[in-house]
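Feature request disguised as a bug: please show the residue count (106) next to BED-type domain-containing protein in the output. Example input:
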Amino acid sequence: MVNAPAAFKSEVWKHFGFVVSRNKKEEKVTDKQTICKQCQSTVQHTSGITSNMRSHLTTQHPGKCQESVKKFQSGQKTLHEAITTALPHNCVKAQDITGWVQKVNV
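Example output, currently without the count:
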């Protein structure tokens, strides 16, 4: 197993590394699968997406890794929060949205 690069900022990377495959000639690190440092289970990984790893931590290690899961969840709004949060009327984004809606309704 090889640790994730320091550039990977998500908290879940503290609990996962990458699979290393070895043959007679070379070692090769695969970025398609990760290994859980707690139980050595392999978890599918798609470049830049950590949801499978986060799900593994939540379901398989609920007590051990809560800090990492909480840190991710605390910054993300729910869908309901995202669509019901009002923007200040003088905000550029709110003005852009109003302009787009007016153009569509014309």
